[in-house]
């Protein structure tokens, strides 16, 4: 009799487990900095490979319309996380926007002056006598004077044409400009998609201009209220980046699987491969993604104050703009 009761009790427990609904995954919205391109591959790959799901996260990826707009969306809590240009976020945060970087992925600047490879413009001195296309007030144009200072160039050494992002691309594609200011893994791939021709970038970072670029941001109140979820999201995103680094073409393909009009596999792959070296500096080469150093952030703040329109009071507490507290430890 006791055995029957025991079996009955165990069966009841097992039945309860069988009918109990699985705990629902947390819905999370990640808004990108712009329309999808190769740099975004890890997020799509992480979702496709079940890395976010394994952390109990149901991830929705939304395209953005610029880092400033995405930062505003995160500040307003219409997106849970944003992937943005961190210096752009700094400018919003110093003015009171409740946002913080929970991980800085691009720790080396992707800024460059680029033109068709067959024009043989390979070093700053080659820019003399050329025409450079710029977008006034964007992040690259703000840092451009520092590049000129570092390389000994003067504004009188070249001509400039100005326009929005697409106008800038068209100027180079149509031969109205020899170079444009752009990111090594973004505009260069757009030009190659349009023309089939290779582009050569003169990287700002090669001339002593190193500052952080893209990272994950969240609303400061959201972080406080959802500490465990933020940790799980950053853990999943770290693993997604590490997995994508090992399989660049598969990671790029995951973009097209989710968005068939998201580009071409060759340039998405190449764009992502150009992004990977930007993940780490000499100081973080042995660390997992997102582990930015205090010195890198302090140097970036100082550069932004001097050249990027960031309020000087930002120098008082660079740590107010970022935290590494929600990143996974080594091996976890």
TrEMBL record:
Q: What is this protein called?
A: Nitrate ABC transporter substrate-binding protein
The Gene Ontology biological process terms listed for this entry are: thiamine biosynthetic process
Family matches, as Gene3D superfamilies: Periplasmic binding protein-like II
Signal peptide (residue range): 1-24
Residue span, SsuA/THI5-like domain: 39-251
Record has Signal as a keyword: yes
Q: Which UniProt keywords apply?
A: Signal
- The organism is Bradyrhizobium amphicarpaeae
